Amino acid sequence: MPFRTRSAYAFLAPYLLVFATFWVWPIINSFLISFQNTRINPWKYSFQANWGRLFYDPAFYNALYNTLIILVIQVPVMIALATVMAVMLNSPLLKARPLFRFAFFAPVVVGEVAYAAVFRLMFSLDFGIINKLISAVGLSPVSWFDNANAAMALIILAVTWRWAGYNAIIILAGLQSIPDDVYEAATLDRVSKVQQFFHITLPLLKPIILFCVVLSVIGTMQLFTEPFLITNRGGPGGGTETLGLLLYRQGFTSLNFGYASAIAYTMAALAVTISLLNLWVGRDPK
């Protein structure tokens, strides 16, 4: 091996060692743990204890159902909203565009605990501003934290509020990469702005939107903060418990590390499968 190559690997060695110790080995080890019954001492190999349990565990199916509901409803709504926001932020008619871009991106940098506490206060049954507004128009207040459907709607609303601006900034970058000549030519051909959006902007933004969809799918499959902090650990009665929250409960509350590892790899497999499906559906026809 040439001296320069050996020198390069010598400089990389500390990073590679840390990478292997704290990233590669934990992944391999957790996969091995998923095949062991960790409820007994010493741990023993048992496929049925963890992977077999996934097929008949009602808690797992409940968490999977809740996660998929959020995925199917929240992700399309958020991506559509982010696209509209990006188009508005890219408009030359908008004044103080940098200020609005910062305002839309700001929810991402807000502390998770802080914004969860604000949402709990805003949607409180007794003194929340949302229920006061609902009462002001003559409707009955909603018990957001005691009704499973209302709590699920609250989770979807919170996640959309937090991440729509982030995706809008990514889509905005894609919009700014589209040459102005394309729109000028369409305008000369008397193509309306609406037609330009659907026949020029959206097709050219397709790779960027697909990228945002894949990121959102991965994030939704790992969703933990909102159901844990806003709806009090997936309440009411598990109505908002997600796979990420179930993993936490099994691993750090019940100390069932084997089953938690099996859930983690199931989450990863689902995220990869759904992401690949999105990429396949959104591929360019040949």
Automatic annotation (TrEMBL):
It is found in: Cell membrane. It holds the Pfam family BPD_transp_1. Keywords: Cell membrane, Membrane, Transmembrane, Transmembrane helix, Transport. The chain crosses the membrane at residues 12-35, 63-87, 99-123, 150-175, 196-218, 257-281. Residues 64-278 form the ABC transmembrane type-1 domain. It is a multi-pass membrane protein. Its main location: membrane. Belongs to the binding-protein-dependent transport system permease family. This is Lactose/L-arabinose transport system permease protein.
